[in-house]
């Protein structure tokens, strides 16, 4: 299996977490944005939107990080998807959507302003950061209530829903807002548990979000 894209991208490292957790054999193939390699015909054949990540397993080409994560789990560690259990897999689907549409939707602009923009010589728009921090705090209140009742997001079992939060949260730790979880003890305990996983440790070592 080949994963195309640089590990500075949290969409790429979202897939690395799944690959590591699933114990899959894979290779990361860096794609150089500086030379617009992501818009080259070779890369467009892997991801027609000219973005990273892209993924290849034999003659199968995938893009969209969350679809790649699901494929990897389905192939190598299906328990992460709870597909044999209708209710558990439904709850996992709910929290996969929450990650994408609530958590990461609020976190993305913060990461862009605090990490990406300065990397390209830009400034941080504090208004955008503050607005999205407020959104994220409201999201975290829901997480706190959920995690007060269950060890993990979909229930009392680790699932892909938890793991898909890892890459963006690791990036959050590289911003001035790393203490955001402090008022939410159950969220903090959940995150500390994820951080202790060897897969997450490995990805944390790979990521240099502020470099
Ligand atoms: C988003 C991919 C994306 O935005 C996914 O895979 O989850 N929904 C998709 N990739 C960015 C890199 S930032 O992580 C990208 O490739 N941008 C370059 C471009 O759009 O030209």
UniProtKB/TrEMBL annotation:
Xref: Gene3D superfamilies: 1.20.1050.10, Glutaredoxin
Cited CDD domains: GST_C_Phi, GST_N_Phi
Residues annotated as domain GST N-terminal: 1-80
Catalysed transformations (reactions): RX + glutathione = an S-substituted glutathione + a halide anion + H(+)
GO molecular function: glutathione binding; glutathione transferase activity
Coiled-coil intervals: 126-153
EC number: 2.5.1.18
Keyword entries, A-Z: Coiled coil, Transferase
GO terms of biological process kind: glutathione metabolic process; response to herbicide
Gene Ontology CC annotations of this record: cytoplasm
Superkingdom: Eukaryota
Annotated ranges, domain GST C-terminal: 85-211
Pfam hit, one: GST_C
PROSITE patterns recorded: GST_CTER, GST_NTER
Family stated for the protein in its record: Belongs to the GST superfamily. Phi family.
Name of this chain's protein: glutathione transferase
């Amino acid at each position: 299996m080949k994963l195309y894209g640089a590990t500075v991208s949290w969409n790429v490292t979202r897939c690395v977490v799944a690959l590591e957790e699933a114990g899959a054999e894979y290779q990361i193939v860096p794609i150089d944005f500086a030379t617009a390699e992501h818009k080259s015909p070779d890369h467009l054949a892997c991801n027609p939107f000219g973005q990273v990540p892209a993924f290849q397993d034999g003659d199968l080409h995938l893009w969209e990080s969350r679809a790649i994560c699901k494929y990897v789990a389905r192939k190598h560690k299906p328990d992460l998807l709870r597909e044999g259990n209708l209710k558990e897999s439904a709850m996992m689907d709910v929290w996969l959507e929450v990650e994408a549409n609530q958590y990461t939707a609020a976190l993305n602009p913060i990461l862009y302003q605090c990490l990406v923009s300065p990397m390209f010589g830009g400034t941080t728009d504090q208004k955008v950061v503050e607005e999205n921090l407020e959104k994220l705090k409201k999201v975290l209140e829901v997480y706190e209530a959920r995690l007060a009742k269950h060890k993990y997001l979909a229930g009392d079992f680790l699932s892909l829903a938890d793991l898909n939060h890892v890459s963006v949260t690791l990036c959050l730790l590289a911003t001035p807002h790393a203490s955001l979880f402090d008022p939410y003890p159950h969220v903090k305990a959940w995150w500390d548990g994820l951080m202790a996983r060897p897969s997450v440790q490995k990805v944390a070592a790979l990521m240099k979000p502020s470099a």
